[in-house]
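Here is an idea for our session: we take a single protein and study its fold together. Which protein we use is up to you, so please pick one and set it down. Once you have written the record down, we can walk along the chain together:
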Amino acid sequence: MNELGFGIDIGGSGMKAAIVDLLTGELASERIRISTPKPATPVAMADVAAELVRAHGWTDSIGVGFPGIVRRGVVHSAANIDESWVGVDADAVFTDACGVDVAMVNDADAAGLAEIRWGAGRDVAGVVLVLTFGTGIGSGLFVDGALVPNTELGHLELDGRDAESHAAASAREREGIGWKEWAPRVERYLRHVEMLFSPDLIIVGGGASKSADKWLPRISILTPIVPAAMANNAGIAGAALVARHAHL
């Protein structure tokens, strides 16, 4: 019998959830997506999380990947959601709404945990950097498989601005430019983080990873760079893993 978990991946535009086979990282149910409420307040988002849990008939603990810094369940930043989240005990808010125990984790850290456990970073020694390109740029930093949490490298200052404002996938869509025009922005950003962290491997995920063939071949940096093996399901799978193994 499979060991199952449940994960919710919160993004700036959508909240996605599914039951996960924790032995393989594969989804064991339909992935259900509900648009992130606007404004993305704690009460509104907790209601959507509860709806996702009910839709799957899930009654055990859950993990939630959250787009911000999360320390011991408390939110410390909220770049792409409502600022009212800052200082909120998100574990408690979601636990009350969903009626089950909830473990919160930074969304990119969740995606990174999945890639390290089951995907492109499995058994890779040294420094591995997982970057998700979507509404923002999320980051998961690992040293010999151990997570360095809440790096939030999308908010590095680069060329006088927040890096993700120029190089996130949403910037490409917002400005109506093609993959060819967007790729140099990503390369500029990757060269910067490469200089700072000297990683042994960079894994790129998030929504843009679904079209990696259109832009990744245009990237030229010293560090080996590969698309996420788990595509856009990594956040859900990693969150489910955190729920089951809260010590990660």
In short: The chain has two domains: 4-109+233-244, 120-229. The chain is about 35% helix and 25% strand. The mean pLDDT is 94.
